[in-house]
Design brief:
The complex is a heterodimer of chains A (about 160) and B (about 80). Chain A contains 4 helices and 9 strands, in the order βαβββαβββαββα. Chain B has a 5-stranded mixed sheet. In chain B, helix 2 packs antiparallel against helix 3. The longest helix of chain B has 11 residues. At the A-B interface, helix 3 and strand 8 of A face helix 1 of B.
Chain lengths: ~160, ~80
């Protein structure tokens, strides 16, 4: 499985990265992409800045180890993960996940799994700044439940 | 010196993401937190919360792990990405 992981400190262009990813593929018949972007509003009102912090080195190693599991679990030709860190504005892309496989099911499932991992298990810390100040964001119960779904998955891993 | 890293809201409590401490002898993570707590109770209790994890030189450890000069100890509160 070909893989590319980028922790990006500057804005990126998901459409350009998806196009480049697609050009690298030889055997795949199915490509799934997910783009996450900054929501313009939160429970505290309108968001001016979303900031993401990571632990350089350890964050990347964690994602690589997770991709080892993905490679064992699904027959993918390639995976792309781009995750922003630093300060972002509403509508800026935060994360891009792309998966490619011979048929769609593996690509859908692997992308879903990757996003669940990135939301609640990868080493990132997110804060939102709005009119009422800065607040650190923790995953919702739903995010933890989403990630836990895969622990009991009959495919193992 | 050992390097301490405080991520997420722990960095706000510690007054910065990074801090250096001189250790004349190795300390367990728990003992090191005790030293920090003596200077700042709020920070100390935040570092002891159940959901805070500890990484010593890039590996998750428990509070018995020993920290010596030259080590990097990171305090990891609950994560959130994506």
């Amino acid at each position: 499985m070909l893989r590319r992981v980028t922790i990006a400190a500057a804005p990126f262009d998901p459409e350009a990265d998806i196009a480049a990813f697609r050009k690298t593929l030889i055997d795949s018949g199915a490509i799934v992409t997910f783009t996450g972007q900054v929501r313009p509003s939160s429970s505290d009102g309108s968001v001016t800045t979303l900031s993401l912090q990571h632990y350089p080195g350890m964050t990347e190693r964690g994602i690589e180890a997770m991709l080892d599991q993905v490679a064992e679990r699904w027959p993918l030709e390639a995976v792309l993960v781009i995750h922003r860190v630093g300060d972002m504005r509403p509508h800026d892309p935060i994360v891009l996940v792309a998966t490619a496989s011979a048929h769609r099911r593996a690509a859908f499932e692997a992308a879903d799994y990757l996003m669940d991992y990135l939301k609640s298990r990868a080493l990132f810390w997110k804060s939102e700044t709005s009119a009422s100040g800065r607040a650190w964001i923790e995953p919702r119960d739903e995010d933890y439940a989403d990630a836990a779904r895969w622990d009991a998955y009959p495919g193992g891993g | 010196m050992a390097k301490l890293l405080f991520f997420g809201r722990l960095g706000d409590l510690a007054g910065g993401i990074e801090r250096s401490v001189g250790l004349s002898e190795p300390h367990s993570v728990a003992a090191l937190i005790g030293v920090l707590e003596a200077g700042d109770r709020l920070l100390g209790s935040a570092l002891l919360e159940d959901r805070v994890r500890y990484a010593l030189n890039g590996t998750i450890v428990d509070r018995d792990a020993m920290v010596a000069d030259g080590d990097e100890l990171a305090f990891l509160p609950p994560v959130s990405g994506g």
